[in-house]
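TA notes, week 10

Several of you asked for a full example with nothing omitted. So below is the full record: structure tokens for the whole chain, then the designed sequence directly under it. When grading your own attempts, check the secondary structure regions first.
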């Protein structure tokens, strides 16, 4: 059975500004056979994406919230603990 589902986030801490890139990675401590992953936000049953990695190239304020990853080996499924992503105000423009 699948177990030990964990999430990693870049940038660490899950705080970023609008326009930044968010990368979430999902891994399992144990599982047999091919493992498939799906991504969910705020308890939504419809997956945002599939695969062990979820990337948002330019986050918007509405992308903030609790994300989780679900992993299945076809027989059993397990979810990661929820991870909160906070999107702060717009990024300061680069000095000229």
């Amino acid at each position: 059975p699948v177990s030990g589902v964990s999430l990693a986030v870049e940038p660490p801490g899950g705080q970023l500004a609008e326009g930044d890139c968010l990368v979430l990675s999902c891994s399992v401590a144990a599982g047999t056979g091919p493992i498939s992953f799906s991504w969910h936000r705020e308890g939504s049953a419809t997956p945002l994406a599939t695969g062990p990695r979820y990337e948002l190239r330019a986050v918007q304020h509405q992308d903030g919230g609790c994300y989780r990853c679900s992993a299945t080996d076809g027989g059993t499924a397990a979810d990661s603990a929820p991870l909160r992503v906070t999107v702060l105000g717009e990024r300061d423009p680069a000095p000229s």
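The domain at 3-88 is CATH 2.60.40.10 (Immunoglobulin-like). Use that as a sanity check on your answer.
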